[in-house]
Write a structure and sequence with these properties.
alpha/beta, 221 residues, 6 helices, T6A_TsaB, five-stranded mixed sheet, tRNA threonylcarbamoyladenosine biosynthesis protein TsaB, single chain, ATPase_NBD, 32% helix, Gcp-like_dom, 24% strand, disordered C terminus
Length: 221
């Protein structure tokens, strides 16, 4: 099993290639909003360093959102195009779940409420617990909430960019962000069970149905 994992939903860009048991390649570009320029060269570099062709992969995993509107869209579009062209299945992974997985990887936390700044006085929030396979699994539905309502939804220690917006007393894990390593960790378990979707189902999840109308209100170009 060989799996390509992509993460551009958090305004950074990272690529990981893993097999059944180990990481074969990882690269992270932390420059904000460089995804469009960097994602394809990083994929190419990963394939070169692992001596793989796209058609040799088992699946492509990607962060499907919620998150940065443009970042989520780039991730889904690149995944769908590559999967379609090479007849590969896809594995969508929640950006909030990946954030929770990053918290476990970096701090050992086994229960977290993952929170991302959604702009416009709102946050994306979901709560997760570690399972026996060392994967952070959802224990509550992902939601888009205003700050006050989100405070009521918090179950565990807060992680992610929205932490201080929900509770200024919980900012210890505000800087944690997910990478393709976390997408790969979650997707590997599904890939080993052949739990994947067809290329046309590589769709973004925004949680905000009219996200495209609100970009100007978010102060974005």
């Amino acid at each position: 099993m060989k799996l390509l994992a992509l993460e551009t939903a958090n305004e950074q860009c990272s690529v990981s290639i893993v097999d059944d048991a180990q990481e074969l390649f990882f690269q992270l570009d932390e420059r904000t909003k460089a995804q469009t320029q960097m994602i394809l060269p990083m994929i190419e570099k990963g394939l070169q360093q692992t001596s793989l062709q796209l058609e040799q992969l088992s699946a492509i995993a990607f962060s499907r959102g919620p998150g940065s509107f443009s970042g989520v869209r780039i991730n889904a579009a690149v995944t769908q195009a590559l999967a379609w062209a090479n007849d590969l299945p896809v594995i969508p992974v929640s950006t909030l779940q990946a954030l929770a997985q990053a918290a476990y990887r970096l701090t050992g936390l086994k229960e977290v409420s993952a929170v991302l700044d959604a702009r416009m006085q709102e946050v994306y929030i979901g709560s997760f617990q570690l399972d026996e396979q060392h994967i952070m699994r959802p224990v509550a539905e992902e939601q888009l909430l205003d700050y006050e309502t989100a405070r009521q939804a918090v179950q565990f220690p807060l992680v992610g960019s929205g932490s201080a917006l929900v509770d200024t007393a919980q900012v210890n894990y505000q800087q944690i962000t997910a990478t393709a390593q976390d997408i790969a960790a979650i997707a590997r378990v599904q890939a080993l069970k052949a739990e994947w979707l067809s290329a046309e189902q590589a769709l973004p999840v925004y949680l905000r149905d009219n996200a495209w109308k609100k970009i100007p209100e978010q102060g974005k170009a």
